[in-house]
Design brief:
alpha/beta; Ribosomal Protein L15, Chain: K, domain 2; flat; four-stranded mixed beta sheet; 8 strands
Length: about 300
Amino acid sequence: MLPRLTPLALKERATMVFLEKGNLDVLDGSFVLVDASGVRTHIPVGGVACIMLEPGIRVSHAAVTLAARAGTLLTWVGEAGVRLYASGQPGGARSDKLLYQAALALDPEARGKVARKMFAVRFGEEPPSRRSVDQLRGIEGARVREMYKLLARQYRVPWKGRKYDHREWGSGDVPNRCLSAGTACLHGLCEAAILAAGYAPAIGFVHTGKPRSFVYDIADLYKFETVVPAAFRVAAQNPAEPERAVRLSCRDGFRESKLLKRMIPEIEDVLSAGGLAVPQAPSDAVGPAFEDEEGIGDDGHRS
């Protein structure tokens, strides 16, 4: 019998790995990728926050089970790490935190406070007073467009705006393809952090109506300090495989900035700006039949 798995806290993990063209299975309690020639590559599943599965990957039931137990997010993506198709759920929203997140999103005043806090974290200054979430979104959009232009001039990259067709990857120019590839990396990492913290990716505050609305909210906090400069820097070099170069640059940048150590505390800090308390269980509710053992993982990890 193998020992019981205890997930590592997200801040102690590597950010992500990309896998393509092989069979992902479990051997001796560990992830292993077997390619067409039979070569086995072991993957430290418990030490990775997110595994991006590109076309050509087949995944066994045992591998998915191990990823869930270890708290590692599996994400099925298109070639070059874009066009998200599906994602697993390594932890899942805790009932208390899900109710807390929903209460914040449903209270207009609390939602506005959370959106204002996100604005302050993103731009390093307090937003204009007496502005609605919709007005803040307009101010944010104008600033973002100017930041794109500024970075394009800084790296001497031709820039015609953020224009791309998500249904046709090759339709975008090199800077837009680099931005899309880098953003996909950041979204995967943010979703892993949100699930590890026990929250729901779908309940957003600035973004709404999508399965990953909260992922987009949190990713926006880090986008212009991580993936956007990396995308323009790679686009200026115009390598033969720009998407791969962006992914490698993002991986190194995430590690150097210690992004994983910041994410969960900053998610909690942003939500606390709403001013609501975490709901307590009703007095007449039925408690758990048995208590889980204390682990070293994050709140949202099941094991």
